[in-house]
């Protein structure tokens, strides 16, 4: 309460003075002074959250796998767990307020795979981000399931995104596998309702998508879509839900729920067809009633470009933000977005442009480089599927009849376009009606080709069996597709082990 009252009294002049002081402090620390070298050498330069605090808009949550967000921070950055013995360990800093010391991760994960299981909040609020509970959180009635236990999400591969920062090696968080997500549904001291809020994250255009939703920021505490204005998160990607966008993207937007907005009307400015770079800083701030502002910058050099500042979309005033912080998914745990994350923070209050410029300068001075991991684009092929259950081809006759293995030859109804994504999943589009095959009712009902685009229900893991056949595992319920009753009944995703009914010959058609 006292802090709130004090922040209301802060004038722009005093904010500018504090920013200047923070800058002078950084310079003073960087210049060795005779006789005090040891003390000075140990002190670190201000981090992004020192700058936000100087500007009167302190960080309410701050995460990074690459560096400290405060000069004084000397705790862990993130937790990893290895597959071999399920042992866990924290990864911390090379020095207080400095960059990560990633060497312990390399030795701990040698010869096995490691998963990032938690990102630690560096603010005193301890708003840590564990793997999202997905549809298993209390009250998550409307949420989308992740591929983890009980519908929870999964963690990122800890070794999958090597980069350097200030010449030291480090790892970012890679959101490539469908259902990778982190969330804190009981965040403390974060903006709620229509309180002003600022957010930034350092991401990359090396891996983006037009699927929903690679987000960082405030979301619903029940992992469910609670209606317009119940989210205030940064979206980064190339989805244009409102239509009318110009260029291929990606763009920085505001995911305000039921829409990722690049302006009040939706579309990006025609003058900015894409916002790209191997490191991209993404910025959103929202005063809760009359303004939201979007910016982007190159994370290695230069300043910020404002892509939008103005009214909130119709139906989003006032904001109704809830105390949850999420990273990597949509507010309802929509799991299909892909992206990269290196650092980011949520602030209390509407940061000034001067503060954001100073944080951008701090990011570029950190020396991010060597983000060279590449991702093959999806491949498309035309295929048919022959069931081992009865030796017949899978038939998708129209958008009202379920898929069934009853055909003795391949024609249009037995032909599918298969999109193979770079994360081991596929989507199938039936040639009979040009609709995508869905595991209807989250897999409770048979497969049917009746969807206009691929989402979670239309996503299947493609498993390769030792005998050369394939099996399909539905993303939503993680169950294997079977040619039910030895092929006499429609295909349905309801099995937990591969037998002959779950095996199909996949052949180019
Ligand atoms: O606003 C876009 C998305 O719509 C949200 O992230 C999600 O909750 C809903 O599906």
TrEMBL record:
<dbReference type="InterPro" id="IPR038964">
    <property type="entry name" value="ABFB"/>
</dbReference>
<dbReference type="InterPro" id="IPR013320">
    <property type="entry name" value="ConA-like_dom_sf"/>
</dbReference>
<dbReference type="InterPro" id="IPR008999">
    <property type="entry name" value="Actin-crosslinking"/>
</dbReference>
<dbReference type="Pfam" id="PF09206">
    <property type="entry name" value="ArabFuran-catal"/>
</dbReference>
<keyword id="KW-1015">Disulfide bond</keyword>
<feature type="active site" description="Proton donor">
    <location>
        <position position="332"/>
    </location>
</feature>
<protein>
    <submittedName>
        <fullName>Alpha-L-arabinofuranosidase B, catalytic</fullName>
    </submittedName>
</protein>
<feature type="domain" description="Alpha-L-arabinofuranosidase B catalytic">
    <location>
        <begin position="48"/>
        <end position="369"/>
    </location>
</feature>
<feature type="disulfide bond">
    <location>
        <begin position="49"/>
        <end position="59"/>
    </location>
</feature>
<dbReference type="GO" id="GO:0046556">
    <property type="term" value="F:alpha-L-arabinofuranosidase activity"/>
</dbReference>
<dbReference type="GO" id="GO:0019566">
    <property type="term" value="P:arabinose metabolic process"/>
</dbReference>
<dbReference type="GO" id="GO:0045490">
    <property type="term" value="P:pectin catabolic process"/>
</dbReference>
<feature type="active site" description="Nucleophile">
    <location>
        <position position="257"/>
    </location>
</feature>
<feature type="disulfide bond">
    <location>
        <begin position="212"/>
        <end position="213"/>
    </location>
</feature>
<feature type="disulfide bond">
    <location>
        <begin position="109"/>
        <end position="114"/>
    </location>
</feature>
<dbReference type="GO" id="GO:0031221">
    <property type="term" value="P:arabinan metabolic process"/>
</dbReference>
<dbReference type="InterPro" id="IPR015289">
    <property type="entry name" value="A-L-arabinofuranosidase_B_cat"/>
</dbReference>
């Amino acid at each position: 309460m006292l802090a709130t009252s004090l922040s209301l009294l802060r004038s722009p002049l005093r904010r500018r003075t504090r920013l200047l002081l923070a800058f002078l402090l950084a310079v003073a620390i960087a210049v060795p002074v005779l006789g005090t070298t040891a003390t000075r050498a140990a002190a670190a330069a201000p981090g992004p959250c020192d700058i936000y605090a100087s500007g009167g808009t302190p960080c309410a949550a701050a995460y990074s796998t690459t560096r400290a967000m405060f000069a004084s921070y000397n705790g862990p950055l993130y937790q990893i767990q290895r597959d071999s013995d399920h042992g866990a360990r924290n990864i911390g800093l090379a020095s207080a307020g400095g960059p990560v010391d990633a060497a312990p991760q390399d030795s701990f994960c040698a010869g096995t795979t490691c998963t990032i299981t938690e990102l630690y909040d560096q603010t005193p609020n301890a708003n840590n981000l564990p793997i999202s509970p997905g549809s298993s959180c209390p009250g998550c009635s409307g949420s989308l399931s992740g591929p983890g236990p009980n519908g929870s999400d999964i963690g990122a591969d800890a070794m999958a995104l090597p980069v350097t920062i200030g010449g030291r090696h480090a790892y970012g968080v890679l959101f490539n596998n469908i259902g990778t997500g982190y969330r804190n549904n009981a965040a403390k001291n974060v903006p709620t309702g229509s309180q002003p809020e600022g957010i930034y994250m350092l991401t990359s255009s090396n891996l983006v998508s037009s699927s929903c939703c690679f987000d960082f920021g405030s979301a619903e505490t029940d992992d469910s879509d609670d209606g317009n204005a119940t989210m205030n998160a940064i979206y980064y990607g190339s989805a244009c839900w409102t239509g009318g966008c110009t260029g291929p993207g990606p763009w920085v937007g505001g995911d305000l729920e039921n829409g990722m907005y690049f302006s009040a009307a939706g579309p990006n400015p025609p003058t900015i067809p894409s916002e790209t770079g191997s490191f991209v800083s993404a910025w959103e701030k929202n005063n809760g009633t009359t303004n939201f502002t979007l910016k982007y910058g190159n994370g290695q050099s230069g300043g910020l470009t404002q892509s939008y500042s103005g009214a909130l979309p119709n139906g989003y005033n006032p904001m109704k933000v809830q105390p949850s912080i999420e990273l990597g998914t949509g507010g309802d745990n929509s799991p299909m977005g892909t992206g990269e994350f290196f650092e980011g923070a949520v602030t209390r209050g509407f940061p000034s442009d001067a503060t954001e410029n100073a944080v951008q300068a701090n990011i570029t001075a950190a020396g991010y480089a060597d983000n060279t991991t590449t991702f093959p684009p999806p491949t498309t092929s035309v295929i048919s599927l022959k069931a081992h259950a009865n030796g017949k081809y899978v038939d998708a006759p129209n958008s009202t009849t379920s898929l069934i293995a009853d055909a003795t030859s391949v024609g249009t109804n037995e032909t599918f376009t298969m999109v193979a994504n770079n994360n081991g999943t596929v989507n199938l589009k039936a040639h009979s009606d040009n609709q995508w095959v869905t595991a209807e009712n989250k897999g409770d009902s048979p497969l049917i080709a009746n969807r206009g685009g691929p989402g979670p229900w239309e996503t299947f893991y493609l498993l390769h069996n030792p005998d050369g056949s394939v099996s399909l595992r539905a993303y939503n319920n993680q169950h294997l597709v079977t040619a039910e009753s030895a092929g006499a009944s429609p295909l349905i995703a309801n099995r937990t082990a591969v037998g002959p009914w779950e095996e199909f010959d996949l052949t180019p058609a």
